[in-house]
Amino acid sequence: MRDDDSMLSEILRIKPTVLPADKQNACQKCSAIYLGFCGNGLCSSCDRAAWLVAERSRLINETIRAIPTHFRWASFDNPEMLLERVHPKSAVEDARGHVRSLSIVITGGSGSGKTSLACALLRQASADRNQPGKFVTAFDLAVARQQHPLGEGEAPTVEGAFEAPILIIDEIGSEHGRNTATQEVIHHRHNWARATIYTTGFSAAELVQRYGDGILRRVFEGSSVIRLGGTT
Ligand SMILES: Nc1ncnc2c1ncn2[C@@H]1O[C@H](COP(=O)(O)OP(=O)(O)OP(=O)(O)O)[C@@H](O)[C@H]1O
Ligand SMILES: [Mg+2]
Ligand SMILES: [Zn+2]
């Protein structure tokens, strides 16, 4: 019977397997030797890391494309422009601290910077959560529902608003007519705990009159409220 010492010296004599030269590759990023063929010259770890970076940038670009052209400048990475357009300026830093909230409500008078701030938050939330963001106005939802033919399922704009992982609903309370598309989107997103950023120029009392207190509770429950200038 061999003792432990002789077993150990046998193990130490085992030489590492040398791969045939045509199967060896050095990763172009970390120089690790890997086996097999990989089109971009990276080992599996670096390949995965590169994929994650590309996927993240694809998601952020998708979110930026969803933001109306007029507000594509809005980003916490360019706070100077936000600070010029959001009143009071202190709300910019305050809002940044709430980017991870499931529900954010931005209230304020016309021109106080609600939509600008909401777009910066959407962009940041999309980057932080690695999820795409969408933008609709309450007006868009009502018109989409009104114009969609009966019997042909849900209007695509409304369907998109139900399902978007992160969504801005701009100007809640300002839509015309009696259709309930905005209320339904609020209700559905609350049920499924989907991140939503609301803006409104209306007071809570006015919103209760428009939507009822059940819907308003779903907007404000557990939400971060950012009050900008000229709040009604
Ligand atoms: N692309 C832009 N170019 C120039 N000024 C801009 C731009 N986007 C926003 N602003 C200005 O920034 C300020 C805030 O605009 P923003 O639309 O965010 O306000 P708001 O509170 O959403 O207004 P409203 O209630 O009318 O929708 C306004 O004075 C607006 O004119
Ligand atoms: Mg606006
Ligand atoms: Zn590598």
Structure description:
The protein is 47% helix and 13% strand. It is an alpha/beta fold and 232 residues long. The protein has 2 domains: 24-56, no CATH class; 67-227, Rossmann fold, CATH 3.40.50.300. The strands form 2 sheets. The chain has a 5-stranded parallel sheet, with helices on both faces. Strand 5, helix 8 (181-191) and strand 6 (195-200) form a beta-alpha-beta unit. Helix 2 (44-66) packs antiparallel against helix 5 (114-129), helix 6 (138-147) packs across helix 7 (156-163) and helix 7 (156-163) packs parallel to helix 8 (181-191). The protein is elongated. It binds adenosine-5'-triphosphate, magnesium ion and zinc ion.
Topology:
Layout: H1 4-13, E1 24-26, E2 33-35, H2 44-66, H3 79-85, H4 90-96, E3 103-107, H5 114-129, E4 133-137, H6 138-147, H7 156-163, E5 166-170, H8 181-191, E6 195-200, H9 204-211, H10 213-220, E7 224-227
Parallel strand pairs: 3-6, 3-7, 4-5, 5-6
Antiparallel strand pairs: 1-2
Helix pairs in contact: 2-5, 6-7, 7-8, 9-10
The protein binds adenosine-5'-triphosphate (ATP), magnesium ion (MG) and zinc ion (ZN).
Magnesium ion is lined by residues 114-115, 170, 199.
